[in-house]
Design brief:
Length: 357
């Protein structure tokens, strides 16, 4: 395999691993953003896949053409110096929230499956993240390159298996779902766009750190598009059993896990998938945050220690509370960033400090 193809795979894997967090793999995000709209949710997921592909390509294209090496340079380009600085601090706050949410999800998983207690599970996950952070970018990329294919293939297999072995399989199950309940969106298109927008906030901070892997515009194009396609395929597959069991699991903290708890073989397979999703997204958020703080203040080890301790403390807020109350707020903020990314990537030829010249 050529170096360019390997880098496309690595970029797509990191992109996919960043998006496919606990909220996605657990089914909680899928219910809130897509399944609640009934069969229209499928079209919402397809729309989200297209958005992810186009925006991912746009971000990588900007990074390649402007030789960007960190998020501050990226935010300055699209927003200018002052707004770029404000954006950077807001994003750092969001990354802290997301990292804590993943640690909280690890705790929920520990309590539901391993019976070791939420706090112990949160501490174990935080320690695993800390060990990975010690290996810097290489460790982060290699773990995603290994786990992202496991996530995508395993998630598709699990979703289809649960759906087709169920005795209640029928198109009528789609009508059980409500008409949508998110306050920031009232249809499946806007819901899909909000879902993409808050995920892009994190994805951008990760993608800009991959500048060394972007060998050409072709690498940027296929890395972004392939990542978006993987997210779409996995989302559709895992949504199928959620549609089918919506009336039973719509309020559950870990909906898919509730469905598979009585399925001996598939239960353990799913546990591996969910843990992988939690781990890769925690790493993505933590790695991006560490890079920002190290560039500002220096001192790698203290930043890593602080982040992992903070993640455990903030995880006590609860995983579901993060998704339902905090994620949509940042999703609305991310809409503005997406518009600027698309403008600069596809409609402007030259830029300087966020202003066309």
């Amino acid at each position: 395999m050529s170096a360019e193809k390997k880098n496309i795979l690595k970029i797509a894997s990191v992109y996919t691993g960043t998006v496919l967090g606990a909220g996605f793999a657990s089914g909680k995000e899928l219910i809130n953003f897509f399944v609640c709209y009934g069969i229209s949710g499928f079209f919402g997921m397809i729309a989200a896949g297209v958005f992810f592909s186009v925006i991912g390509f746009g971000v990588l294209k900007i990074v390649y053409e402007n030789k960007i090496t960190n998020y501050r340079e990226f935010s300055t380009l699209i927003l200018g110096d002052r707004l770029g600085a404000v954006s950077e601090w807001l994003v750092c706050g969001f990354l802290l929230v997301l990292f804590s949410a993943m640690i909280a999800a690890g705790g929920e998983m520990s309590g539901a499956v391993f019976n070791i207690g939420k706090l112990k599970g949160e501490i174990v996950l935080s320690c695993l993240c800390f060990l990975t952070f010690l290996f810097e970018l290489d460790g982060f990329v290699e773990i995603n390159t290994f786990l992202a294919p496991v996530l995508v293939i395993g998630g598709i297999v699990i979703g289809l298996y649960i759906f087709f072995v169920s005795p209640d399989l029928a198109l009528e199950t789609f009508s059980v779902c409500g008409a949508g309940s998110f306050s920031l969106s009232n249809n499946f298109v806007s819901s899909a766009f909000i879902y993409v927008s808050y995920n892009i906030i994190t994805a951008v901070t990760v993608l800009v750190s991959l500048n060394k892997l972007i060998l050409s515009k072709k690498t940027a194009k296929y890395g972004g598009v392939f990542g978006g396609v993987c997210v779409c395929l996995l989302g559709i597959s895992m949504s199928l059993p959620l549609f089918e069991n919506y009336d039973k699991i719509s309020l559950a903290q870990l909906p898919v896990l509730n469905i598979v708890l009585d399925m001996d073989f598939i239960k353990y397979f799913y546990v591996v998938i969910l843990l992988s999703a939690i781990f890769t997204t925690a790493l993505a958020n933590g790695f991006s945050l560490i890079q920002n703080f190290e560039r500002k203040k220096g001192g790698k080890l203290p930043v890593k220690v602080f982040l992992c301790v903070w993640g455990v403390l903030m995880a006590q807020v609860g995983f579901s509370n993060f998704i339902e109350n905090i994620y949509p707020f940042f999703g609305a903020i991310g809409l503005f960033e997406i518009i600027l990314i698309l403008k600069i990537a596809f409609f402007s030829k030259k830029h300087k400090n966020g202003i066309d010249v």
